[in-house]
What we know:
This protein has about 280 residues and is an alpha/beta fold.
Amino acid sequence: MSHAPFSARSALAPGSAAPAPVAVSRREADGSVPPRTALVTGASSGIGAAVARRLAAEGRWHLVLTGRDADRLEQVAPPGRTALFPADLARRGAEQELVDFALDRAGGLDVLVAGAGVGWAGDFTAMPGPAIEELVDVDLLATLRLVRSAVPHMVAAGSGRVVLIGSLAGSVGVRGEAVYSAVKAALGPFADALRYELRGTGVGVTHVVPGVVDTPFFEHRGVPYHRSRPRPMPPERVAEAVRDAVLRGKDEVYVPGWLRLPVRVRGAAPGLYRRLAGVFG
């Protein structure tokens, strides 16, 4: 594989000042347009890894991939123009180091796919305090900090797209996943508000809302997926939706599309929805 592995020692020292965003002329010496750059988090498995593979298959993307498991990240990273940044984005300052690394390697940042996340399943009253804090830190706060670090560079360049990987649990709430539902619910309004702020800058925001995806997520959360419906879909289906949303500039995407139906029922008839969810959810 042709990777550009990253050593944490070459990152910015903690507490050091980050360079101000500047507009970059994205052209090679011969005048040609260089590959676009996509920064993908959570790329060591699941949806993030599938997104990386899908973009790499096109042959016109420079990928910057990050995940907490350095060995796994190396194993799943596609060949080609791929730079790796193993990191725990819950650590304060890691998000700025990652953005600076991407800018240094690629000269710009066209797309950010924020897919890193953890889960926990069980009764809320039995959820350990550290598990609550980790879930909020990884799934929400780390994402907000990363977007905050990346967006100014996109605005300065006059183009870019932020893709936030949400969950149906954040749209309707899921039994046994109270905290996960809460943090994913925050991403939808955040995407809307940020989109309003960035209007006219050339930077777009996409909220991708997948249903059940066949990834190691359920193993890591401690409880396997046991429902017969909806059936888990392959992460490649979500990756295709992410690619399509980036190319078409879509604001919100449900995967599969029929998942909009329960969300609309909940909005139009919340009482009916809650009665049905109490029986089937």
